[in-house]
Amino acid sequence: MKIIILGAGQVGSTVAESLVSEANDITVVDTDGPRLRALQDRLDLRTLVGSAAHPDTLRAAGVDDADLLIAVTQSDEVNLVACKIATQMFNLPTCIARIRSTAYLGNEAVFAPECFAVDHAICPEQILTDYIVKLVEFPEALQVLEFAEGRVSLVAVRAFKGGPLVGHELKDIRKHIPTVDARIAAIFRGDSPIVPEGNTVVQAGDEVFCLAATKDIRKVMQELRRMDRPVKRVMIAGGGNIGERLARALDKNYVVKIIDRNKLRCEMLSGVLDNALVLNGDVTDETLLESENVDEMDLFVSVTNDDENNIMASLLAKRMGARRVVALINRRAYVDLLQDGRIDIAISPAQATIGSLLAHVRRGDVAKVHSLRRGAAEALEAVVHGDAGSCRMVGRTIEAIELPKGTTIAALVRGEEVIMAHHDTVVEAGDHAIVFVTEKKMVPKVEKLFQVSVGFL
Amino acid sequence: MVRLPAILNVLSVIIMLFALCMAFPLAFAMYFDDGTRLVFEQSMLITAAAGMALRLATRGRRRELQTRDGFLLVFLVWTVLPAFATLPLLLYLNDLSFTDAYFEAVSGLTATGATVLSGLDRLPHAINIWRTFMVWLGGMGIIVLAVAILPLLGVGGSQIYKAETPGPMKDAKLTPRITETAKGLWTVYLLITIACFFSLRVAGMTWLDAMMHTFSTMGLGGFSAHDDSFAYWNSPVIEAVVMFFMLLAGINFATHFVALRRRSTAPYLRDPEVGLYLLVVLGSCVLIALYLWINGVYPQFWTALRFASFNLVSIATTTGFSSTDYNLWPIFAPVWMLFLCCFATCSGSTGGGIKMIRAELMARQAIREMTRIVHPRAYVPVKLGGETIENKIIFAILAFMLVYGASIIAMTMLLTASKLDIITAFTAVFACINNTGPGLNLVGPATTYAVLTDFQTWVCTAAMLLGRLELFTLLVVFTPGFWRR
């Protein structure tokens, strides 16, 4: 596929890196020459210095025969204009734009073909905020991912001693919670994945991915660990784009304190937040943390735009007694450094947001992609099309489908109904299949499975 | 620097407009032929001639007014017009002193409703019509009217308009042009006035009484054509109708304007003052009714509720009608009513006092200070209706409250120094500065301000003007910096 990426910032580079490995022809456009050169040295792609929305630049980038435009520059307006020009002047088929402002996101008409012609608007900050809000709602989970418009959720939970299922075979889960239909999609022990079978024994320390209807998630998690008390007090370090969104989302139902260094920013935050307490100061200032009772916090979230600050602030908060700390960390090396677990959850913004982009790049009708374990694994939701003749899935039972290695079909969503995949479940056309891929290199094979062979109209 | 000739030029036009207003009672004088026709003809002629003379004297000096000029113009309008307004009273009542007549005129134009006259039932209709008509004119504001119907103020108009309109935040315009805003406000005022007029007629008043009491109600003034005020009718229906319109007039007319234009009630729900205003006033009605009932003032709760609510709403909205001599109630009840009048009405209404919005913001400022003690590093905004209020406005309100308190204390001191008892002195000042009307004791609802000496009357007159122009507009004229070139 020929892809043009506008903007070589954090999101642009990560997207490029992720797509290059999937055998695409990629051109990255940015105004920052040195940054582009660095990117070109590292990855196998073409770069072009220029203004992203200018028709000449787009033409030079090869927009005429491109398949996909991903506009992820800093400016919403540049992204919108670029999409409009690409579709109107060059007949580009698909445009994805990063849009930050809620003023645009709230008005669907802005993205209509006759307006700015954006096929998919994505907002990384919003995705990250949703991610963290889920962690507040489910304090026991490492990650909560939603499929099929929120009907099904995939949770990652660390198994602890004391959970009823820990030390038992997986098939026992039916005896423990007979009313709940849940499926263990994968287990990671250390760094290696285990394909779960009925007789696999869960051990303490395992990272278990289980899939269940969203309303049943809590019951499933109870099987794997003792439940924490619900989160009430949250402290947010950093009042930037993500901090603000997070504070707004939590403002109503939780006791929120938010810290920012910038006085003007504090003033602005205190204006938009109704209940949250806005504090001015350094997120690593222990006297401030102490006087604001960091030890009483159920959750401490560090979301400044500086990795070092986030790490230091959350380590400090943990040592001072915060129950659970979450830090936003961009650099992969740092995430690896912090594997010993003093920071409860390290979130990589790029990994968390790339999934929503990838869903649109994939072949086959992929509705949702979640990147897991720093990109090593993937969970995707794809729609089954065709009939028994043109598709290798329709009309077959799960066990009859030849799945690539390390891949499991965890569930099917048929209309409103959620069906956990058992060996004798039959796949029908129109089903949304939720597929868990433990090794990323298998992804193209999975895509192929969902593609309809030529001849199907 | 202040350019006096240019200001006087504008003033002359407003004086002539005021002369035109006298045609209204004159028409009734001619209709009833009650012997006041000559009085009003003379008053109108003198006023018009004075205006014309001033205009000729300042001919060719017309210039665009600036902010500072605006304050002086407002000051002059509100001190000079009452002087002309006294003419019909002085010419008809030969034994009335200028001091008392001026007090009566200021009381009318500031929509206070304190009176020095008694034997109102025996006065000619035209005189009573003139008294209540002044209340109606002054309620919405003379300058607002001038801005609405005369194209005389130009760009500076909005500054002058702001100096007269009550409330701490006046920057939000309803329409792009100030003239249109003023017109809109007067139209709404007129519409509600008409509604009130017909409602009172239906409720049982004569056409004439309905008109006069409508004027008094809408301006939240309190002048009545009867010595007994509303005890004259002793009708629960009339009281209920008047209560409703008093409550209506106590709401920001800008909110009425928006609600009427959009034909929805949503603006009332969004208004940060309306809810609290109604809650405080109506809640107090029940509270005082219970208090009176328990103390045995009225044997039945419903009677207690009827008298408590009419008198309380009347005082709390700074109107000043009464249906009974509440001076005889246990002291807590009238004191609570007077306390309400200092803050209950909304900004932009025709009521007086410090306005609900200032009280609300002050309460929030107090909470903010306490939060700051607990969290020294916190940014705590003062918010109203979801909007952050600038510190500038908070400081302005703090200064306003300080001057307001100081004015009340100083003027109470002056009155007590002139040998008035403390309750009369305090409540007289309090009722005047809040443009309410009746106080307690000697100046209670059953008595008049005629008992005051000339000096005391002037103090009360000053209090009414201070209250109507919200202190600073008036006081700034007396600062040396205002006159410095």
Structural account:
The complex is a heterodimer of chains A (457) and B (485). Chain A is of the alpha/beta class. Chain A has four domains: 2-122, 3-Layer(aba) Sandwich (Rossmann fold), CATH 3.40.50; 140-224, Alpha-Beta Plaits (2-Layer Sandwich), CATH 3.30.70; 243-249 and 259-347, NAD(P)-binding Rossmann-like Domain (Rossmann fold, 3-Layer(aba) Sandwich); 357-450, Alpha-Beta Plaits (2-Layer Sandwich), CATH 3.30.70. Helices cover 30% and strands 26% of the residues of chain A. Chain A is globular, with a radius of gyration of 23 Å. Chain B has 485 residues and is mainly alpha-helical. Chain B has 22 helices and three strands. In chain B, strands 2-3 form a two-stranded antiparallel sheet. In chain B, strand 2 (382-384) and strand 3 form a beta hairpin. Chain B starts with a helix and ends with a helix. The mean pLDDT of chain B is 88. The A-B interface holds A 263, 266-267, 269-271, 274, 277-281, 288, 291-292 and B 371, 375-381, 383, 386-388.
Most extensive interface: A-B, 15 and 12 residues
Task: Spell the H/E element sequence of chain B.
Answer: HHHHHHHHHHHHHHHHHEEEHHHHH
Q: Rough shape of chain B?
A: globular
Shape of chain A: globular
Query: Structural class of the helix and strand makeup of chain B?
Result: mainly alpha
> What is the CATH-assigned architecture of the largest domain in chain A?
3-Layer(aba) Sandwich
Oligomer: heterodimer
End-to-end CA span of chain B = 5 Å
Order of the strands making up the biggest sheet of chain B: 2-3
**Uncertain segments of chain A:** none
CATH superfamily of the largest domain in chain A: NAD(P)-binding Rossmann-like Domain
CATH topology of the largest domain in chain A: Rossmann fold
Find the count of extended strands of chain A (DSSP E, 2+ residues). 22
Radius of gyration of chain B: 22 Å
| CATH class assignment of the largest domain in chain A | Alpha Beta
Q: Give the C-alpha Rg of chain A.
A: 23 Å
Strand coverage percent of chain A: 25-35%
